[in-house]
Amino acid sequence: MADIIKNVRENIVLYGALAANLGIGVAKFVAAGITGSSSMLTEGVHSCVDSGNQILLLYGQKRAKRPPDAAHPFGYGRELYFWAFVVAILIFAVGAGVSVYEGIAHINQPEELKSATVNYVVLGISALLEGSSWTIAVREFGKSKGDRGWWQSIHRSKDPAGFIVLFEDSAALAGLAIAAVGVWASHHFNDPRIDGYASIAIGAVLAAVAVLLAREAKGLLIGERADPQVIETVRDRIAAHPAVTAVNHVRTIHTAPDSIFVAVSADFRDALTMGEGEALIEEIETSLKAELPQLSSIYIRPEKRENATKVAPYAAPA
């Protein structure tokens, strides 16, 4: 029971979004069936896609926690990035695709809209639920962004679950606003085709969000370096050791949102013996892991500065 509670707390953003989207999706489909609104049907599909996305991210997080083995010595942490990319594809292919298709179909064969009251009630309830989920996502993501701007924090984030839900909920609120305008305009101007145009507009919003998410997920999947501050801390701590004459390069890659592999090339004093060098490396690794627990693997290679420059002239200082 304690493990379940801990899991819910750690994934409060995903569980909150999942609960909201499941309830909203059912309500939207009922409203679409009663009123014949294309934008409401589109919003129902949108909520179902979002629900499936949250389930995939939860599944990805579970798979990513598997321990390292012979086939994957650095663990399975990056599997979460794969599922994040799948989520982006689903938003584009299913969410945006169905929205545009339904919108075009409704424009070509418009159906007379029935009472808009049901739509307005469902849209209002949906806005409250989506707003609650969005507030949770903003609050949780805000805890990790520090003093950085929102877009910079999203671009640098290595945990896709947080910013994906943030994007999804933002798109959902925008979709609700578009759907409300579409329903109102269709009745006000007595033209059901407007509801179809609203559905296409919702699809365009989803497509834009999917492209942004795919771009961020692709970077994580290929492999991104650690935060520059972490890299600089590693460099400073090693360079400060009296037995180190120079730090040639510090290269990092995230193997999971909270796990970093570090490869360091450093020039040690020539007077050091083999045994002293081994002890020094062990000492440095121990102190770095104590200060930066996210460093899951540290590889320090003794290398003359001039040799490191010849082998890897492209290596940046950080």
Description:
Helix 2 (12-35) packs antiparallel against helix 5 (117-145), helix 5 packs antiparallel against helix 7 and helix 7 (160-188) runs antiparallel to helix 8. The protein is elongated and about 90 Å long. The chain has 2 domains: 2-222, Alpha-lytic protease prodomain-like (Up-down Bundle); 228-311, Alpha-Beta Plaits (2-Layer Sandwich). It contains 11 helices and 3 strands, in the order H-H-H-H-H-H-H-H-H-E-E-H-E-H. A 3-stranded mixed beta sheet has the order 1-2-3, with helices on both faces. The protein has helices spanning 2-10, 12-35, 38-64, 79-108, 117-145, 150-156, 160-188, 193-222, 228-239, 274-291, 305-311, and strands spanning 244-256, 259-268, 295-302. 70% of the residues lie in helices and 10% in strands. The longest helix has 30 residues, at 79-108. A hairpin with a 2-residue loop joins strand 1 and strand 2. By secondary structure, the protein is mostly helical.
Short overview:
It contains 11 helices and 3 strands, in the order H-H-H-H-H-H-H-H-H-E-E-H-E-H. The chain is mostly helical and 318 residues long.
Strand content: 5-15%
Q: Report on the biggest sheet.
A: 3 strands, mixed
Can you name the CATH architecture of the largest domain?
Up-down Bundle
SSE topology string: HHHHHHHHHEEHEH
Can you tell me the CATH topology of the largest domain? Alpha-lytic protease prodomain-like
Shape: elongated
pLDDT average, as an integer?
A: 85
Give me the CATH superfamily of the largest domain: Cation efflux protein transmembrane domain
Distance between the termini: 44 Å
Number of strands: 3
Major sheet strand order: 1-2-3
Amount of helix: 55-70%
Low-confidence stretches: 1-6, 313-318
Please tally the helical runs, counting DSSP H or I stretches of 4 or more residues: 11
* Total domain units: 2
CATH class of the largest domain reads: Mainly Alpha
Radius of gyration: 25 Å
Structural class: mainly alpha
Subcellular location: Membrane
Protein name: Cation diffusion facilitator family transporter
GO molecular function: monoatomic cation transmembrane transporter activity
Domain Cation efflux protein transmembrane: 17-221
